[in-house]
């Protein structure tokens, strides 16, 4: 069997991906997460919070809900249907931090939960902090020279 024949055989054997269905589920579940965030924002605003404080409270609530759903393993069930729709930045990041912590809780608090919590999110945090320092230095140099 030649390499070309093997490639054709492998392509014929692999299941076809339901792209339209996957995109639809990602769209409506991701949209539902965003809707919950907007409802939280409006609700906190209706309680008399300033817009900035309401935004912070809504973000904190979304992070807490995402971590709770991850701990109950409902977030993973939702992600099986939604795919990329659950990667809405704040909830996806909270899930990325909470999932390894839940997975390694049997190894103890320090070596399990605390050590593994930043396995996935650690590089994101390091990059964000590093970029913030670099941008801050550039801004400081720009504003002090001018």
Summarize the structure.
Helix content is 80%, strand content 0%. It is mostly helical and 146 residues long.
**Structural class by helix and strand composition:** mainly alpha
Low-confidence stretches: none
Rg, please?
A: 21 Å
Secondary structure: number of strands: 0
Order of helices and strands: HHHHHHH
Number of helices, where a helix is a run of at least 4 consecutive DSSP H or I residues: 7
Proportion of beta-strand residues: under 5%
Detailed description of the structure:
The protein is built from 7 helices and no strands. It is an all-alpha fold and 146 residues long. It has a domain at 3-103. The longest helix has 28 residues, at 19-46. The model has no long low-confidence stretch (mean pLDDT 84).
Which helices and strands appear, and what pairs or packs with what?
Layout: H1 3-13, H2 19-46, H3 51-71, H4 74-82, H5 89-103, H6 109-116, H7 121-145
Helix pairs in contact: 2-3, 3-5, 5-6
Keywords:
single chain; 146 residues; mainly alpha; 80% helix; extended
């Amino acid at each position: 069997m030649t390499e070309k024949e093997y490639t054709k055989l492998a392509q014929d054997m692999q299941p076809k991906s339901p792209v339209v269905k996957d995109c639809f589920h990602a769209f409506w579940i991701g949209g539902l997460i965003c809707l919950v965030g907007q409802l939280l924002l409006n609700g906190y605003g209706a309680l008399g919070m300033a817009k900035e404080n309401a935004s912070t409270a809504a973000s904190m609530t979304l992070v807490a809900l995402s971590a709770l759903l991850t701990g109950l393993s409902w977030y993973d069930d939702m992600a099986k249907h939604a795919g990329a729709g659950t990667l809405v930045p704040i909830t996806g990041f909270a899930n990325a931090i909470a999932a390894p912590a839940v997975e390694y809780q049997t190894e103890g608090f320090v070596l399990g939960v605390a050590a593994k919590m930043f396995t996935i999110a650690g590089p994101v945090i390091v990059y964000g902090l590093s970029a913030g320092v670099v941008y801050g230095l550039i801004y400081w140099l720009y504003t002090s020279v001018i």
